[in-house]
Amino acid sequence: MPILGPGGIHLDFGYACVSVLVADCSPARTVTLGRLRALATDADRHRLLAEIARSNLRNTRRLLWHNIAHGLRLYRLTSNLVPFATHPVADGWDWAAELAPDFAELGAVARAYGLRLSSHPGQYTVLSTAHAAVRGAAFADLAYHARVMDLLGLGREGRMVIHVGGAQGGKAVALERFAAAFAATPAGVRQRLCIENDDVVFHTSDVLALCQELGVPMVLDLHHDLVNPGEAPLAALIDPIFATWAGAGRPPKVHVSSPRSEREPRAHAEDIDPLPFRSFLALLGERDCDIMVEAKAKDRALLTLLDTLGIGHPPLAATPGSRGGSAG
């Protein structure tokens, strides 16, 4: 069952990519391009990349078991599970075929325990760009993330979160470019994409209008709304934002972090300030949602917040009859 929060609402929590509590468990190991190029053959390069990717997948599986034990249903996959997957240095390597059994085992754990996985393609994955080369790289990166979700056995519930990007030529023009690029992506990408308000350019109202136009879910980032607020108060936007998730296959998703300081308001703090978070819970009322904590202290910050607020997080139970693989 989801975690029962204050006021009777159902909340599930998670964190992004890396644990600070589980030692020696990086899911994002990589290698330098120089080292790869120094290897004698493509086969040598592919062998090394496969070895690193398998280590990343094993460690991701360890983190899922850690999350299950602590009642954390949400988890953001790192973008670096398969290093250099979209780089020319890996041309000729069918990583998806070679790693399919490893992904299948990871996906089995997630499905058995009802985990909700997501990814967040990086800052260079920009659909609003005016540059064809940048847009082409964004298409390749999004295709990689969608392939990962396919290999995990996840449909549209495996969500990919992106920002609109830059506003070259003005917001209106950039939003038109985004919409055109979105329409050009494959169905496996479009059905998984969510758009998040950012902390500099496209505020909450901007992104809500875009999501309503495109028929895609909006991820509300509370920190970004704090430093880059829209025209309307957040209280007036919660219902229409959550309405974009109708039929999405999972609850609405909210990102939570706290400013590092008054001098660095956009940077993320180590932990979550519980007082503003209590205010957000009050704003939620009886609405259910998923909450992704983006604090620097990762799972430690999340568990501290839950304990501070008195929100229980008992271990998750497997679906009857499911097979989630070993905890090794």
Name the descriptors.
328 residues, alpha/beta, 8-stranded parallel beta barrel, 11 helices, 43% helix, globular
Q: Could you explain how this protein is built, in words?
A:
There is one protein chain. With 328 residues, the chain is an alpha/beta fold. The protein is 43% helix and 12% strand. It is built from 11 helices and 9 strands. It has helices spanning 33-38, 42-69, 95-112, 132-151, 171-184, 187-190, 204-214, 222-227, 234-243, 274-284, 298-309; strands at residues 3-4, 10-16, 74-77, 116-119, 159-163, 193-196, 218-221, 253-256, 289-293. The longest helix is centred in the N-terminal third of the chain and has 28 residues, at 42-69. The two termini are 24 Å apart. The mean pLDDT is 95.
Number of strands: 9
Q: Shape, please?
A: globular
Estimate the mean pLDDT confidence.
95
What is the radius of gyration?
20 Å
Write down the CATH topology.
Answer: TIM Barrel
In order across it, which strands form the biggest sheet? Answer: 2-3-4-5-6-7-8-9
Number of helical stretches of at least 4 residues: 11
- Strand percentage lies at 5-15%
Major sheet attributes: 8 strands, parallel, barrel
Q: At the fourth CATH level, what is the homologous superfamily?
A: Divalent-metal-dependent TIM barrel enzymes
What portion of residues is helical? 40-55%
The CATH C-level name is: Alpha Beta
Unreliable residue stretches: none
Determine the structural class based on helices, strands and strand pairing: alpha/beta
Please indicate the count of domains.
1
What series of H and E elements makes up the topology?
A: EEHHEHEHEHHEHEHHEHEH
Q: Report how far the terminal alpha carbons are from each other.
A: 24 Å
CATH architecture: Alpha-Beta Barrel
